[in-house]
Write a structure and sequence with these properties.
The protein is an alpha+beta fold and 201 residues long. Helix content is 41%, strand content 18%.
């Protein structure tokens, strides 16, 4: 360990930053991945864009939020490892930062694409959204108040966890809160209400 720290301290400041960002982001990514696998991950909170003053979120065409904690970690991971790998090949610090940032954005795009494909796999013939009625779910992305936008919930049906868009007529429901599913709006959207009981799966 002491040898590694000694080698690290010999690096230029920019290379130290790239290594630090790459290692920390990678460790956090692994932790989030493990939490997702075991169904305990509520980290993917959304970051609001308040340019219009209404808390509008930047989304893809499929309603996927681009600005999330996971995507931010993905950006940092791509940024850091690009800097580490290309540091000796690019002499200009400005160009190096630009290239690393582009690679970070490509990582985000890759994660969004993977997530979109995983959502398609969820929508198979074995899942009937009507089976969620009355179930208790966990808020994955916060749900705006009084139907002013969609959030996401995670609900377990027949041993499989599904992520589904959700709205509420009540006050805003934050990430991690338990809710009860009270209505099926359409094939991709549910209406929920606050549920103070423990999560039931």
């Amino acid at each position: 360990m002491s040898e590694l720290m000694s080698s690290y301290q010999e690096f230029d400041l920019m290379l130290q930053v790239f290594w630090g960002v790459a290692i920390v982001a990678s460790l956090v990514f692994v932790i989030l991945f493990v939490l997702t696998i075991i169904g305990l991950d509520h980290s993917d909170v959304d970051i609001d864009l308040n340019a219009d003053g209404d808390g509008t979120m930047m989304e893809t065409g499929d309603g996927l939020n681009i600005f999330t904690i996971k995507n931010f970690i993905g950006f940092l991971m791509g940024f850091g490892w690009a800097g580490v790998c290309l540091y000796d090949s690019i002499s200009s610090p400005g160009v190096m930062l630009l290239v690393a940032s582009v690679v970070g954005c490509l990582f985000v795009a890759m994660f969004v694409l993977i997530y979109k494909q995983s959502r398609k796999l969820d929508k198979d013939g074995t899942f009937n959204i009507n089976d969620t009625l009355g179930k208790t779910a966990s808020v994955y992305l916060r749900i705006p108040a009084e139907g002013r936008g969609k959030g996401k919930i995670q609900v377990s049906i027949n041993g499989s966890v599904h992520e589904i868009d959700a709205v509420t007529d009540e006050d805003e429901i934050p990430t991690g809160r338990n809710v009860r599913i009270v209505e099926v709006i359409d094939n991709e959207t549910l209406k929920v209400e606050n549920n103070q009981q423990s999560l039931v799966i």
